[in-house]
Write the structure tokens for this entry.
Amino acid sequence: MKALVLAGGFPQIELINKLKSRGIKTVLADYYEHPVARDYANKFYRISTLDVDAIRQLAIDEKVDFIITVCTDQALLTMAKVSEELGLPTYIDYKTAINSTNKAYMKKVFAENNIPSAKFVISGDFSELDLSGWKYPLIVKPVDCNSSKGVRRVGNKEELEASFNDAVSLSRTNTAIIEEYITGKELSIDVYVENGNVRILDITTSEKLKIKDRFIIFRTWHPANVSRAVQDSIQKTAQKIADAFGLKDSPMLIQMLSDGEEAYVIEFSARTGGGVKHLSIESRTGVDIISAVIDLTLGEKPHLTVKEPQSKYMVDEYIYCKPGIFDHTEGFEELKTEGYIKDYYVFCWKGTVFKSVASSGDRVGGFTIEGNTIEELREKHNKVISDVRIISENGDDIMRRDLIMNFDDSEA
């Protein structure tokens, strides 16, 4: 068999390796010249996963048996569309993929099915907006981007217009969504839908960089510190989403805000969380979500058995850097051998140019620490911050320690 893998990021390394372990040849398509997963695939083509026509032709030319992706939104849409057109197996149909990747479709379905979410308006023309009665701050987003690209919090009309126009320019459909701003703890919920029934795998809390108008994750806590009432609210809402979008057997990622009593949906997607979520899910629950997606794509319906986590706490930390050209990292392997970190990850390739910290996609890498006390976590965190180096082509350490120096245990 032969699989066409869309997107060559860090999670796709795991996907490719698991496909190859089943004797399946892999063809990788990605926009970048040398994505981190490139060297793991049997063949590589530099093609944007958003270019539906090019992906369709590649699938035909390579005579692939199926198309697959994990942990990414927009490639999911291409996968579903081309698979449907070519009659290839897939776990999600095109209509469901649209509804779960385009925020405009998504919010309409939320409203029609009484799924708790923020008040919203959608437009491609700022002059047509009627926001009478709305109060600042507001949130502006492109309707079809991920990695927090183009997402801004605005405090007045001038900021709103500038951010709206920026969001429209980033959108594939030249459309933006404006939402009311809801305060609360931000939660990320990884779910597996089995025979139409939702199973919560992990509820985490995200810490964001202290940048005025942006939402860039730098740390994730497992598990989130939420009440039983909030957990019950999450379970009910997750089931409503699965029912409303017709998800029968599928992974699902939900982003929510909680005020301590209820949980409100920001957005969701019929996929596994990005970054290192597939690894943290397996570590915390024993569930191999990547293999489950492969099974689903090939027409199987795996039954997932969830185990208890071995450690009370686990924290994923993401590293950003100063402007420069990435060459290599130092210190990670020694820290893993000494037991300070559970694992580490490099999301970019040698020669990657970093200009700024504008979205979660600007991460250079990350690491995971775990323990049974906050004191143990803090000790490990401080050791990693002290010993790790992100080295540029010029030999400089360009790691932004200032962005992750503060270890706030209030989320535990």
Observations:
- The two ends are 45 Å apart (CA to CA).
- The chain has a mean pLDDT of 92.
